[in-house]
Write a structure and sequence with these properties.
Blueprint (H helix, E strand, L loop, with lengths): L3 H15 L4 E6 L12 H5 L8 E3 L2 E6 L2 E6 L5 E6 L8 E7 L3 E6 L6 E4 L24 H8 L6 H5 L10 H11 L12 H20 L40 E5 L2 E5 L6
Antiparallel strand pairs: 1-6, 2-3, 3-4, 4-8, 5-7, 6-7, 9-10
Helix pairs in contact: 1-6, 3-6, 5-6
EC number: 3.2.2.23, 4.2.99.18
Pfam families: Fapy_DNA_glyco, H2TH, zf-FPG_IleRS
Keywords: DNA damage, DNA repair, DNA-binding, Glycosidase, Hydrolase, Lyase, Metal-binding, Multifunctional enzyme, Zinc, Zinc-finger
Length: 271
């Protein structure tokens, strides 16, 4: 599933090709996504110019005229830039054609993603209103993690992946951040000290920033807005490496299931 670095990589990749451009045509091949494609999409978009793209958690925000489109990539979706004459492939569901011939093309084999109108403001749309802070913003720090975790028995990894605590720290990056911070993902969130939460917050920022620089993590479906894979998978310390030797100490990595998600960790380095 595309996580925050993959969505941010997509935003940066497609922005130069569509920001400030007028939309000339909208093609909807498959309207039945997780949320049906709005019936008024083409009528509203054609003739409007695309504003500056934004991102909130794993949602892409596309201002167009007086409204804003909300894109979500779901489990297998991608937004790529094509050119006039590039034939659509299977599962290419929506095209936005802009004035210079660039095409923003939404591809989603599983159709768990969507494109829809933002409902009101970021604080009013029910899909966004209760989200926690961005992990790379000043609003996210170890003090917040410590405060929200008091008396919580839930394991620290699913606690960190809770979007009400902080957005965008999904399975891959939570695993990697906990490894860098030296924290066992099974440990109860309420039993971790303020000092260790400061290390965890810094580790999460470090991992996410590095993943964005590397273009995200390509494990199966993800490519950037220009069709390039992400290269952060080459730097993974624990995710997907169960039974392989730890890159730090050489001990075999272990696999646990937390919150119905696979969690790989080093029993020696993560206490």
């Amino acid at each position: 599933m595309p996580e925050l670095p993959e969505v941010e990589t997509t935003r940066r990749g497609i922005a130069p090709y569509i920001e400030g451009r007028e939309i000339r045509e909208v093609i909807v091949r498959q309207p039945r996504l997780r949320t049906p494609v709005p019936d008024d999409l083409a009528d509203t978009l054609v003739g409007q110019r695309v504003g500056t793209l934004g991102r909130r958690a794993k949602y892409l925000l596309m201002p167009v005229g007086e409204r804003t489109l909300l894109w979500h990539l779901g489990m297998s979706g991608s937004l790529r830039v094509a050119r006039l004459g590039d034939m659509p492939r299977k599962h290419d569901h929506v095209d936005l054609v802009v004035e210079d011939g660039a095409i923003l093309r939404y591809h989603d084999p599983r159709r768990f993603g969507f494109v829809d109108w933002l409902q009101g403001s970021l604080l009013e749309d029910p899909r966004l209103a209760r989200l926690g802070p961005e992990p790379l913003s000043p609003d996210f720090d170890g003090e917040r993690l410590y405060r929200l975790s008091r008396k919580r028995r839930i394991a620290v990894k699913p606690f960190l992946m809770n979007n009400a605590v902080v957005v965008g720290v999904g399975n891959i990056y939570a695993s990697e951040a906990l490894f860098l911070a030296g924290i066992d993902p099974r440990r109860a969130a309420g039993r971790i000290s303020r000092e260790r939460y400061e290390r965890l917050a810094e580790a999460a920022r470090e991992v996410l920033a590095a993943a964005i620089t590397q273009g995200g993590t390509t494990l199966r479906d993800f490519v950037s807005g220009t069709g390039e894979p992400g290269y952060f998978a080459q730097r993974l310390n624990v995710y997907g490496r169960q039974e392989a030797p730890c890159r730090r100490c050489g001990e075999p990595l272990r696999l646990a299931t937390l919150g119905q998600r696979a969690s790989v960790f080093c029993p020696h380095c993560q206490r």
